[in-house]
Design a protein that fits this description.
The chain is an alpha+beta fold. The protein has two helices and six strands, in the order ββαββββα. Helix 1 runs antiparallel to helix 2. It is globular.
Length: 117
């Protein structure tokens, strides 16, 4: 299985790792589905005494040459533009766990998918 390198830009640098185009498409689909939920949370005004129905988090995991996990709780962010994700990228030699802006990750994934298609 052929993998090319995907680069994710973080607040204080970037990380590049082997990631297959198919896995990138799956991640893109998972984030697109999650964005619907995040936008629904942002669009609903909180009623005076009513409870807001909690939305499920984004919990994406991929195991290949590297393990990639992306987690985001839509219930704590007021808008998709403010949302941040927790990223974990690891292989047998290194483990990186950091927070990144959701919108920047979306841009990076879209750019990668365009390059490999």
């Amino acid at each position: 299985m052929s993998s090319t390198r995907m680069t994710l830009n973080l607040g204080e640098g970037s990380v590049s790792f082997s990631f297959s185009p198919q896995a990138a498409r799956e991640l893109k689909a998972a984030i697109n589905e999650f964005m619907v939920s995040l936008k629904a949370v942002a669009a609903k005004p909180t009623p005076g005494g009513g409870k807001v129905t909690p939305r499920p988090p984004l919990e994406y995991r991929h195991t290949g040459e590297v393990f990639l996990e992306v987690f985001c709780n839509p219930n704590i962010w007021p808008t998709p533009f403010a949302a941040k994700v927790l990223l974990t990228i690891r292989n047998i030699n290194i483990c990186l766990t950091t927070e990144a802006e959701l919108t920047r990750i979306i841009e990076d994934i879209n750019q990668y998918v365009e390059q490999v298609d």
